[in-house]
Amino acid sequence: MKRLTAGLLVAVALLTVSGCTALPGVGGDVDPPGVEDGELANETALVEAHLDERGDSYEVQTTHEETAGNTTSSDEMRVVVADGDTFVHRETTTKDDATSVYESLSTDSFTASKLPDGTFSIGSRYSAGSAHGIPSQFDLLRLADFQTAGTTTHDGDRVARLRASSLTDDADVSFELQRATLLVGDEGLVHELDYRLTDYAATDDFQYTVTLASTSVDSLPAPDWTSDAREELPDADIDVSTNSEGYVVIEHAGGDAFDARLRVDRQLLTHEDFQPGEKLYVGEKRGSYDVATMWTGDPVDGEVTVTVTGVVSPERATVNADG
């Protein structure tokens, strides 16, 4: 049975796993982090190593097919990330063979989506900080009883192959694992995960494959709808600064009125119908940030990062109020 490792041991595992001996059933040429004694014993160490190796510029492709009774639907998604900018293309096919397409582009200066009905929307359902690919499958790595099954080659790279056909004894889930295959490189880079689940009645079937297509992305694809989105969606010039009293000032310097969504450090704030020429002031009240059209609460103490969304061109700035 898989040994579930406490979070406090992750750092130690990352430092020591590279000195492990050859793995039973794997071969001395591939020795991934988190794999010990012929099994995936520390899924946290594997995911951490994968994120380290993958970096901040990559492409992930996922496919899944779901069958419920006599109805089958499929979904294919491509996520491309380049230094914090994200492009998503997703195609969904329903039981009547109708295909819908969703796309989104999110950069420092543009964030919008083209919906399946051809209209546009501010923002994206996905971001560079989302758990793309293998990290989003952490629960499966934790619950499936992955055992080593030799080595193979994937896109020219030598990888360890791990397989699972059951869940761990302590898994409390409403599905059964039929099969799963994990391909992982020597440094922990997960190249592919493929698995099939069914419900206990065996009437619903779910097949999923996630593939790391690239770890070297220089730029994002350029969708042909961004200029149309800029024309149809609200946009504005936003300035973020501080005043002499120590408050953060957010000024609508021109453009369209919009419902502003503000993130001040980790706190979310809103202001409806933000008008051209209007100013918002961020202060502190009882340990939290507060926004209003006039000074309110106490001045902000120190450095804060402010992100203003609700327009095609979001604004993000780090300021030091020295309140």
Order of helical and strand elements: HEEHEEEEEEHEEEEEHEEEEEEEE
Which architecture of the largest domain does the CATH hierarchy give at level 2?
Clam
Helicity, as a percent range: under 10%
Looking at the structure, what is the overall shape? globular
Order of strands in the sheet with most strands: 8-7-6-5-4-3-13-12-11-10-9
Unreliable stretches (pLDDT < 50, length at least 5) are 1-27
Tell me the distance between the termini. 56 Å
Question: Whole-number radius of gyration?
Answer: 24 Å
Q: Looking at CATH, which topology of the largest domain would you report?
A: outer membrane lipoprotein receptor (LolB), chain A
Mean pLDDT: 86
Number of structural units classed as domains? 2
Largest sheet: 11 strands, antiparallel
Percent of residues in beta strands?
over 45%
Number of helices: 4
CATH class bucket of the largest domain: Mainly Beta
Global structural class: mainly beta
Strand tally is 21
